Amino acid sequence: MIQPGRLCRALGPLLTRPLLGPGRRLxxxxxxxxxxxxxxxxxxxxxxxxxxxxxxxSDWNPMGITKGLPPEHADVVIVGGGVMGWSxxxxxxxxxxxxxxxxxxxxxxxxxxxxxxxxxSVGGIRQQFSLPENIQMSLYSAYFLxxxxxxxxxxxxxxxxxxxxxxxxxxxxxxDRAAMxxxxxxxxxxxxxxxxxxxxxxxxxxxxxxxxxxxxxxxxGLENEGWFDPWSLxxxxxxxxxxxxxxxxxxEVKSFSVASKTMCTEKGDVNFSRISSLQVQMPNSxxxxxxxxxxxxxxxxxxxxxxxKRAGLGxxxxxxxxxxxxxVEPRKRYVYVWHCxxxxxxxxxxxxxxxxxYFRRDGLGGNYLxxxxxxxxxxxxxxxxxxxxxxxxxxxWPKLAHRVPVFESLKVKSAWAGYYDYNTFDQxxxxxxxxxxxxxxxxxxxxxxxxxxxxxxxxxxxxxxLNGRFMSIDLNNFSFNRLLFHEQVLESNxx
Amino acid sequence: xxxxRVLQQCRALPHLLRSSCLFGSDPSSNLPKGGILQYLCDxxxxxxxxxxxxxKQKYSKIERQNRYHGHLKExxxxxxxxxxxxxxxxxxxxxxxxxxxxxxxxxxxxxKDFLVLRDVLVEAIDLSGSVVSYDGLDNLVFxxxxxxxxxxxxxxxxxWSLSRLHVFKDSLEExxxxxxxxxxxxxxxxxxxxECLRHLDISNLPSIANKGLILILLEExxxxxxxxxxxxxxxxxxxxGAQMSGDEMEExxxxxxxxxxxxxxx
Lengths: 495, 266
Description:
Number of domains of chain B: 2
Shape of chain A: globular
Order of helices and strands of chain B: HHHHHEEEHEHEHE
Low-confidence stretches of chain A: none
Membrane topology (chain A): Single-pass membrane protein
Strand order of the largest sheet of chain B: 1-2-3-4-5-6
Largest sheet of chain B: 6 strands, mixed
Pfam family, one (chain A): DAO
CATH architecture of the largest domain in chain B: Alpha-Beta Horseshoe
Keywords (chain A): Electron transport, FAD, Flavoprotein, Membrane, Mitochondrion, Mitochondrion inner membrane, Oxidoreductase, Respiratory chain, Transmembrane, Transmembrane helix, Transport
Oligomer: heterodimer
Domain FAD dependent oxidoreductase (chain A): 75-464
Function (chain A): Required for the assembly of the mitochondrial membrane respiratory chain NADH dehydrogenase (Complex I). Involved in mid-late stages of complex I assembly.
């Protein structure tokens, strides 16, 4: 058989002789036409692709399309791709009455999740709170994590494993806080949490490595408390939501286009605003896409205050209701990992000292991780996630070494920092919407206990969106309106 | 427009038939058997929904078998509830002061004679090989005199179920967890609540990677308990130049067959 390539190569010089003057051949490089026949396979593939694109059902556009551009219309836009955002996305799809009733998209600024609070979290879950709502949310979340494969399991995929350690939280209280701890334990037991109270003698017997000086009473969570892997949970939510039809887009929400109606009263005018669309700017590009949406869910974590400001919340004149802004700001917290060969063994719980320092076992090789929340006036700078090792030497180590004498000799292996989405008003979640900005739903402000409440909070906001009210847990105490009326809902067990 | 799609599917068909039903990719029950069902499941929502419903039915079945036998509580007490649950699921019960085990017969039937013993404490329960799960333990948590619990080879017993056993801290002396595929070291860590435990059997737990290390840590955690079923040398590859087993705590070298994907060795 004559191979077409060889034949055409042989005929090549004949075909490509330019029609210049006699005897003169212009040779700069190989002429184009020759390549068509020598790389026939590749050329054929290119030709097939062009043919497919010219058929009616292709997305070819002569001006080219940017990959990953969000759609022009969406029903619900969830700003923030952390565990809260994906939890709301999953629950919206799980609870909607008809399949594909809502078009839900999730817009996340950072594809690498380098500063996301979810993945930098220590990953603990506890029911030892003082507010009934917090206890109920944590209990539901523990039930969700236990039955995670029934909720988030995808057909043909391996079962989800979040590496849940059941070692529990141990809160130590000194004399002055003992009464409050006992009262909290009664509230927790009333709402179904299994918590036991321990005296210093019982503590010493159970945990011989502990120094019980200054400890009046301790509370230990017997069930549904421990720590797990936040990245697995985030991925489980994300994969299930995407399997149910939620689309993820990377980009930053730069501005909102807000329509408002004014109500004239004798005391002045009140503006009721509604977001009509938002601008999403593509990563590393100046291109932005307007997305017309019905509802916006603010799940931006530490940056949700900034996002709400972009939508115009809190920009009114002083003294009016319109000046109330979302008081959520990033606060940096450090976590240190150290190795201590003779430290507490398998029974080591997540221990929270009377001074506020905490630590837990990490793995089986004698590694521990822990930290401490700094005092109000010593908050570190938030512009980057650099770790301050002096903080460990001066503030964390002495407290831990006092409580666990073996920690006198330890070696710090590594450390990292992450942001809390800190609610400066009362350190509790802000869930729901506000009449001044009707269609923005907040799911933020958890101040360090967000990950453990994410399944319950996501379900609550999804119920609010689909049914107009909370159906399973009554979280009306966490509404934005408490900020308008200056009613603090304080939680006393903050770590 | 339809022609290219049909062409694509025809090209895939022989490949499908070749990847035959004989080599189902995973012995776990999640995957549909056979290439054609998988192919259809990937492309049609209806088939995917039917298979997902079938999976959900499996969970419902386990839930039904583990329901709480509360109707007996009012008249007979918590111990009889536990006995009824155990016999219903094919297990065995021994009362305090008795030598004989009460078990159902080969066809799963059992007589209601145990109702006369409504004031006697249950001492030992054998639920090996049964479908007992976290919810099924609702029937057992109110027992006050339970000394021995056998949960060997139960496929639905996982770490969450072990975390419920703290209620037996004053009475349980013997716990058998042989061959439970879902129990890991994270669940074993919450057994430190069982202060009276004297015999713990953890042989043949496939989900545990560093068996020797876990044995040492468990013996430190429960000093008065005898832990059987594992060797110090399990999970440690000893080569001729290896150091003494005291180094195990720092860097156990795990042969690749014992290492599970995704688990970071300590």
